[in-house]
Amino acid sequence: MSERNPPPPDGWKLSGVKVIPAGQLDDNTPQTPGMHRAAAIDFARAGAKKLWAGTVHIHANAKTGAHHHGPLESVIYVVSGRARMRWGETLEFTAEAGPGDFIYVPPYVPHQEINASADEVLSCVLVRSDNEAVVVNLDIEPAERPEGVKWVDPIHRE
Hints:
The chain has a five-stranded antiparallel sheet with strand order 1-2-9-4-7. A four-stranded mixed sheet has the order 8-5-6-11, with no helix packed on it. It has one helix at about 45, and strands at about 35-40, 50-60, 65-70, 75-80, 85, 95, 100-105, 110-115, 120-130, 135, 145-150. The relative contact order is 0.22. About 5% of the residues lie in helices and about 35% in strands.
């Protein structure tokens, strides 16, 4: 038998599962120029203690400023559109992701999200490893020609 905590006084009714309707996300979050973030799950809204989740929208042909998220790990799931990520000390590396793809951003990595489409909004779901929405905007002079990087799966190498 697996261990579990005893139920709270409300029997999990109000302290259990929470559904956050799409139209009730919170835009009162740290923002990066060129991007719109909205929180769905954080401590204030859902009581989350170890993660933050929300949405990100980047307009067609737009890009964010360079930034990082301090000690937090980030996972981006592309819902629609085409994401181009640049990262590195001078944003010298690049890769693209499309609908259904996941992007992992380790702690402190300077990066920039770019909507690679000239006519479609890039829509993503974002999850971070803490309930604080840490955003550190950076003043970086980007590399002239970033190097394309193809991800190699360390477990399923060909």
